[in-house]
Each structure stands twice: as structure tokens, then as C-alpha cells.
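Sat 14:20. Reprocessing the chain from the morning session after the first attempt stalled halfway. Input below, unchanged.
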Amino acid sequence: MKKLLKTITIITILAVAGAIPAALSYADKADTGSVSVIFTHDMHSHLDEFAKLKTAMDDVKADYPDSFVLDAGDFAMGTPYQVTFSQQASEMKMMDYLGYEATTLGNHEFDYRALGLAGMFDAAKGVNVQMVMANIDWEATLADEELKADAQVLKDAYDAFGVKEYTVVEHQGAKVALFGLMGKNAVDYAPESGLLFKDAIEAATETVEKIKAEEDVDMIICLSHCGTIENEDDVMEETEDYLLAEAVPDIDLIVSGHTHTVLEEAVQVGDTYIVSCGAYNAYMGHAVLDKNDNGRYTLASYELVALDENVAEDAAVVAELKKYRALADEEYFSQYGFSWEQVIANNNVEFTPAEELGIVQGEEPLGNLITDSYKYALEQAGEEADITVVPLGVIRGSFDKGEITVADAFNVSSLGYGKDGLSGYPLVKAYLTGKELKAVAEVDASVSMLMNVARLYCNGLEYSYNPNRLIMNRAVDVKINDGTEIKDVENDKMYSVVADLYSCQMLGTVKDQSFGLLKIEPKDENGDPITNYEDHIIYDGEKELKAWYALASYIDSFEGDQVPEYYGEAQGRKVEIDSKNPVELLKQPNKIAAIVVAVVVLLVLVIVGIVLLIRKLIRRKRTR
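Finished this time. C-alpha cells:
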């Protein structure tokens, strides 16, 4: 027996001795300058995926127990979990539950406006996720008479929560400074933030210099909501985070959010690495960096972990999420006579998946469904409109075959916050002239080629487009279809148009995006320019008519609880004319085309004149 015990003891000692080096392998690396970073960005309230995310994190931490866990903003706004953002801070609390150490603000956190975001900070007190943000210009904001009242409320909540320009976190001897940024494009996408921002590169330069002067750190990481590649025509070297890496070379790692980019390989700019893992928790990013001989870091490994059916769900996370689902029903959906998991229809239509929407120009049945739902909801509320419009940028999901729940409908039109302080953009009515409607069609035909979030889908407005025509003059045959007859658009006539609040607010950017060539100025029923879109919100009784509710109630109204086969095909609302026939290329020229043609004609005349002059001089020379 003693001999057996002695043998077991020896085996145990040897096993433990063998295990200790394995367990300490990463700790030893950390002491010598190896850093492991788990990261996400643009999660958009996709908390159901947290159950798989926790499993994936634990798998990484089995090998790298002292990994830094970071997020680069837009953690909210995209699923029904967001409806209690200001009251429960569900996203921040769940990030804390998973062990996140730091995050930053993205443009969609500002969809809740200053007061809604302040509420989230109040509700999140006690959460151990450090918020870092370096380029809000509080001094300028609080000096602005129109902004300062709500901004002060946010600033008080912001300070009470403990938001910092940067923070320093230490794991196993590796000290890392973390700071956050919002880029120019992200700021432009946050028209209701109620804040003014410093230039991201200037703020980053100042922050990094402060870190170098005041802290003794091994690495500097930027949690950036600036972005890289968004559209297929984008050039990496011209993107905001690439330019940031060039301008501020002391940053070691940029976790790049905002553009939903999936970078399968890290982008290296000097000694700086840019990493991105895409949106909606489809992937979790993991990077390991080793300190090199010059004191900087070299990327040792980089992986995007797919959070798909091969990853098991963590049961404890699933149980925790049920609490927030119940709160969403209790505090929000019950107000609309719905519940999260309520089935409202069955679907046999093959709608384009969300990640493929708008990649190719053209009509989308899902866009038809959404704009039709606006018309339906308007009628139910005793309102009407000539045209309803939804841009691609506010369509956040699609429908699979099978059952459609209220949550599914909410996910498709999940963005925003209303004047009522409740989640979801309300619908707004404005008026445009026929000439401006032609400009709307041109936004879709031309501007969306430069910025695909501007692709438009309509009910009541129909047109053709020819990609071979001169840019800003590609839309032709613009018509009004009132359901009974199709008529030509009259340039001077006023037409009523309904879209969600955000889309109306963003109409002001059309002039900039079209280089000043297109102008759309929404007006009230008297023809006066609208200065405050909230004054034109549509109500169903005493409630704001929310875009998501319009969609859910329309789907709920389908006969036989079945999505009509009508939505399985295009309806001719937007038709491509891929022709180089001179008749098609030159018909219906607008002012822009006329100017270009005039310039071309003038150049031709000048060239002809020069040729004739030369010939005349040659003839004179020959006769001498």
C-alpha cells in the first residue's frame, strides 16, 4: 500500500510539475512584454450572441488568462435589448458580466441624445467597464447657448460615472494605456448628439503626448470609432484610422470600429496595427503582440473567431439575458400591445440577407415592404402621404424564412430615439417640390454610388436609372404612383413625403455629398423650410408613430398570417436601363448635364477654332 501511495505521489508531483510551466507560459510571456487583446466593436445590442462570445472568450483565456478585453463603441442600438438603454444600461451591464475592461462611445450611443445617454450613465453606476473618450469638446459645447442645458446634464452623469480621456490597465507586468475617439464620419452620423467634437487626430496627438509625459506604459491602444473600409470603392490609405495611424505613430494598436469592417489580416502602418472584427458579434477578435528589440510591438498572432453554430452558448449568460428580455416587455413592448417573442406572421419569401442589402444598386423587396408599412400605419393613424421613403442606412436587419416575431420586425427598423424619450425613430412628414423629388431619385442613382447607405427605397415614387449616364444625371422618367394611376412629376408641385426622423435630418447632407450639385430642403405644408423636424412627428393617438411599429403592425395585419408572395419579386419601382444608346444617354438632361454639355461644346468649338486657325496660318505660309 505504501509503495502504491508513493507511486501515486510521484506521478502527481510530475503531473503538477508539468502543468505549472503550461499554466505560467503566458504569464512568463507577459513579464517579457507579450500582450493578448480580445476585442469587439459595433455590437449594436446583439446581446444574444454574448452567450457564444463568453464561451469564445473563455477558450482564449485558457491559453491567455490575462487578456485585455476591449470594445470600440456602438455597443448599443440594434435589437430590443436597447429599449431599456436609458433605464437599465443592459448593454454596459452585460459587458461587465463578460469581463470587459474598457469601451468608448460610438455615434449610435448618441442616438439616445444627451438626456438618454445621461440616463444610461446613471443606470450603469457600479459597472466596472471603464469608458474612455478623448475628443468631446466640452468647453465649446457648454459655451453654446442652444446646447448647454442638456449637455450639462450629460456632463454631470458622464463625470459621475467616471469617464476618462484615457486609462491605464496592468496585466501581469504589462501596462497598457487605453483611449477612445469618435471620427469625423461618425460625428456626422450623430446629428442629435447635442455635443461638439474636437478633430480626432488632433485630440489623439494631445492624448498620446499626455500619456507619454505622465505615464510609464508599455503599450498605447486606441479604441477608435473612426473606421476604415466601408464601401468597396474605399481606399484603405485614405480612411480615417489609417490616417490616424500615420499621424500618431506612437499608437501601438487601433481597434477600429464604426465602418463594420472585417479585417481578415491586420493592417500595419509603421509600428501601428489596425484591427477590426466586423459588426453584430458575428466575430470576436483576438490579437497577440510581442515586444520587440526597439521597444515597440510586433503582431505575433491575429484571429477572428466566428461566433457561429460551432460555438456553444454559456448557460449562465443565457439566464442573465432573460432578465433583460422580461424588462423590455414590461417597460416597453407592452405599451404597444406587443411582446418580444410574439409571432406576427409566417414567411416563405426569400428576402435579401441584411449583410447583402444594398451591395448592388436596384430595387429591394424588403425596402418595398418597409415603405408599404409606412403607408399602412399612416392610414391606421388617420394620416396620408404621397411618398414614403427608407434609406439603406436605417435598415438594420432582414427576415429569414419561417416565423417572424415582434423582435425580428424591431431589429429591421431598430434605430433611434424619439422626442418622447422612447426607443425607435418616429415617422416625420415633410413636403418637397417635384424638382426636389427628382433630386431624391438622383441621390439614389448617383450619391449612393459614393455612399451606399444613401440607397433609397420608396412607395409612391418610381424612376429609372442608367449607370452609363453622366453622374448626377442618371435618374430619368421620375413618376408618381398613387396606387391607381402613374403620373409625371410636376416640378413646381408640392408632394408630401414621410420618412423616419433620422433620415429627414440627414437630408441636409445631400448638398455636401453631391458636391453642392443637388439640394433638398424639406418644407412644411405652407412651403416654409423646416428647422425642427420634431415639430413634424406623426402621432397615432398620443403615441409617436415609430418606424418599427409601422413595420410590425403591417406584418401583423397580413391575411392568413402569411407574408404575401408579392414581396418575393421586384415591382418596377426602380428600374435599371443599362444602355449606351445616345438617345438614352442624352434624354431628359438636367441643369447639371446641360452645363457639362455646354462646357464640352465650348471646348469642341475652341478646338475646332484652333485647328481652323492653324490651317489658315499654314495656307498663308505656303502662298508666300
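Confidence is low (pLDDT under 50) at residues 1-30.
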